[in-house]
Amino acid sequence: MRLSDVAKQLRKIVGRDAVLDRAEDLMLYEYDAGVARSTPGLVVFPQTTEHVSRIVKLAAEAQVSIVPRGAGTGLSGGSISRDRGMVLVFSRMNKILELDLPSLRAVVQPGVVNLDLSAAVNREGYYFAPDPASQRSCTIGGNVAENSGGPHTLAYGVTVNHVTGLEIVLSDGRIANVGGKALDPAGYDLTGFLVGSEGTLGIVTAITVKLTRVSEAVSTMLGIFDTVDDAANTVVALTAAGITPTALEMLDGWTLRTVEEATHAGYPLDSGAVLLIEVEGLRESIPEQEEAVRQVCKKQKAREVRVAKNEKERALLWAGRKNAFAAIGRISPSYYTQDGVVPRTMIPATLRHIDQLGKKYGIQVGNIFHAGDGNLHPIILYDLRDQEQTDRVHQLCHEILEWCVKVGGSITGEHGVGLEKQNMMGLMFTQEELEVMERLRVALNPSSVLNPQKILPTTLGCGEVRIARSKPAEAHA
Amino acid sequence: MSSATPAATITAELAAIVGESNALDQEAALKAAAIDGVLPAAVVSPGSAEEVAAVLRLANSRQWSVVSAGAFGDQSTGFPPERVDVVLNTRRLTGIEHYDPGDLTMGVAAGTRLSEIFQRLGEHRQMLPIDCAQAAGRTVGGVMAAASSGPLKHGFGGLREFCIGVKFVTGDGKLARGGGRVVKNVAGYDLMKLMIGSWGTLGVMVEANFKVFPKPRQTRTFILDFLLSGGAVQFRDRLMKSALPFLCADILSPRASEYVPGMQSQNWRLLLRAAGSDTVLARYRTELGHYIVGDFEGTDEERLWGAVSDFQETVLARHHNAMVMQVSVPPESLGAVIGSAERAGIENNFLPAVLGRCNIGSLLVALVPLAVDPPAAIQYVNAASAFRAGLTKDSSAIVMRCPREAKGHFNVWGDTPTDLGLMRTVKQALDPGGILDRGRFLL
């Protein structure tokens, strides 16, 4: 079927105004917040689960791939169509379907913006815990696809820890439910398995999430250090001392100066690194938690530990962290935010190694990251128009991730594999291990209509794919 | 038990992989490895992931049915198997593979007993919050397969919340792995979630990695009494709205208290465990107010929670013909569980005992036969259906234990909101020959 015919069919399903196929409209959907670009063939805006189901059936028949997309804030290319397929945008499926406060659950459509859900229950003292930096615009469907984290992941867990059920459209258009409002129902935990599968196993159309009680008291501290090493050692010492901050973020000297110029958050310009440390709990527990943090910081040669005195000071400290990427955008034509994880005991050595790699490649690298769970975000400055430099940046990234894996870590902590890192999966997994994952993908998505060419290496498992394609009808028997 | 392949042939072929001393078919060995009363044809104990893979490749090609086992702690859950050709024992897959106290992570082989892990973590004042029944004697593979949990599930979540990596072998002998060693990781499919609670039907686990936790410095457990269940449920509702965090929050019916030594009471009880300094604990005391009838700390507190964890075992030790169900409900449905257990008990001549994590909807319901005639199989069937019928949408009630004779007459796994077709697709992908745990699971 030609794309123009598919568009015609799509308009019959979702309405005339819910399909885009003009070049100038499609351009808007060729990128996400990462570095990859590719123009889709069509864009469609379903309004109901039934729409999604009919679209999937049509796509399977027409052999056009489908890439689900929320707000397009992803960083690994997960919502980019590589083969001029159809981008399925959830901006019109953005309703909160149910708030069940007595059970601490909400049921939402995938297009609901992360922070909007928290806002809807904030007055009653609840919120949705996963807090990616993009939470003002990113959608819960996107959070589910990528299993997103955020600064408070350290204490409250990533998205999968807050999802108890899903409604999902399978690759043959069938609508299925997994899980519900109860924890751990009988049978496999397909909810947990599907969260983070980046749209490659099914298209999520409704999500049951946990709501979390807002803590009674919170304290935000700023640990100021002369060197990156001291700050990094403090992260290790805090973890080892059994102190459990709800957030533990680090900015190195270069990054904090860049941020300070743009945001005036109060980070001292002459420091080597700062740690943003947050503790929560009952009012009575805050002074003792603050004191425990202060003691560890001092022992690790902190120059000073400041405590935000009020909500305004607290917001300002966080503003520096949350606006960091915008601040960097002011000074560099392009930047690449990497996402790797190392054991927390390896943070000091890892930061030294990244510093050396930056020097080796002659590239400026800043570090701002979720130190508390070892999730690094080296920010790499470059000029996309300079091909030679861009190549160097990719090499540098590869070496950083190779190091992460070598010391026992991961190539991605929260941004996802997408199309950015699929060919680095071999760093972490053997061919046989990847084949087992491929087998699951083929079982659930036999014709590869759903978000093809993502997560698993492009070179993998062609044989199995062919076998499965020859008998797709059995897949969901 | 009849088997398609003669036992001697099976044993000889397995011995070629693992050595003669690790492939047994003597009667004593088979009896020790019986699965819900069914003797296997052979017991094999591989010494490495590669040997597990070789055993499963062989079993798959021969269509032998395989049941994996560690401490045999939950092998009487599920339907009794029609036939077991091979019990794959993980007893040689033991040891702590890595432990980084500074990173709060640990990796262990599947056959490792939790006691070994607890001891090692204790040296660093750290803990793995798995406090299921008889936890110390269980193996890592066993608790993963059964998604075992206990009172600490309230504060730390279940295994799905802190298992960060898994290595397993698929039914056809492929080495698979999900996750890794770090606490945050989204590379590849989350195979940990598939393995946890899959009851050995998707693969044989060989290793698992965990996030571990610092032990709270000081904890105290407050006991609160209520004359009626309604009062306890109402207070529970208040707690769910309050800002007070707890490590454990359990409800105990008067009948259930008989199976928790030291807790016997005519009242409904809430057992609330909090952590913090004296100042913080004083705040709890003020807020919980006059409902408090006692509090525990130190070794008494540990003993109390150990007894709560062992509830199911204590019930079964006293009444071998009791039925115990593991119930998952939306938290609001606590009252429905209590009401339904009472009705199902009365109508079918059982005494209901309810215990469990009241704020997260993870409960245990024991139906103890009245001391007259032993119940007929049909009474278990009716009691389970009556109980399940009183639950709200999205709930499930798995019969963990009941007399074997009753199991043939009803679905011990019960309903689930999760799509069965999709579960079968996953099963087919990871165990294409259908050799693992054949006939015992809900699929």
What's a quick, concise take on this entry?
The complex is a heterodimer of chains A (477) and B (443). Chain A has 477 residues and is α+β, with helices and mostly antiparallel strands.
Just name the CATH architecture of the largest domain in chain A.
2-Layer Sandwich
User: What is the 3D form of chain A?
Assistant: globular
Q: Multimeric state of these chains?
A: heterodimer
Mean pLDDT of chain B: 96
Molecular shape of chain B: globular
The proportion of residues in beta strands of chain B is 15-25%
Distance between the termini of chain A: 27 Å
- Helix- and strand-based class of chain B? alpha+beta
What fold name stands as the CATH topology of the largest domain in chain B? Uridine Diphospho-n-acetylenolpyruvylglucosamine Reductase, domain 3
Low-confidence stretches of chain A: 461-477
As for the number of domains of chain B, it is 4
**CATH top level label of the largest domain in chain A:** Alpha Beta
Q: What is the overall pLDDT average of chain A?
A: 93
The total count of strands of chain B amounts to 19
Q: What count of helical segments of chain B does DSSP give?
A: 17
Major sheet description of chain B? 8 strands, antiparallel
Indicate the topology.
The complex is a heterodimer of chains A (477) and B (443).
Chain A: H1 3-14, E1 19-20, H2 23-26, E2 42-44, H3 49-62, E3 66-69, E4 86-89, E5 96-100, E6 105-108, H4 114-122, E7 126-127, H5 140-146, H6 153-156, E8 163-169, E9 175-179, H7 190-194, E10 203-210, E11 212-213, E12 217-225, H8 228-240, E13 247-252, H9 253-263, E14 273-281, H10 286-299, E15 302-307, H11 311-322, H12 324-331, E16 334-337, E17 340-341, H13 347-361, E18 365-369, E19 375-376, E20 378-382, H14 387-406, H15 425-428, H16 431-444, H17 462-469
Parallel strand pairs in A: 2-4, 3-4
Antiparallel strand pairs in A: 1-2, 5-6, 6-10, 7-11, 8-9, 8-10, 12-14, 12-15, 13-14, 13-18, 16-20, 17-19, 18-20
Chain B: H1 7-18, E1 23-24, H2 27-32, E2 42-44, H3 49-62, E3 66-69, E4 86-89, E5 96-100, E6 105-109, H4 114-122, E7 126-127, H5 140-146, H6 153-156, H7 159-162, E8 163-169, E9 175-179, H8 191-195, E10 204-211, E11 213-214, E12 219-226, H9 229-241, E13 248-252, H10 254-257, E14 268-275, H11 278-288, E15 292-296, H12 298-309, H13 311-318, E16 323-328, H14 334-348, E17 350-357, E18 362-369, H15 377-389, E19 396-401, H16 404-407, H17 420-430
Helix pairs in contact in B: 1-3, 14-15
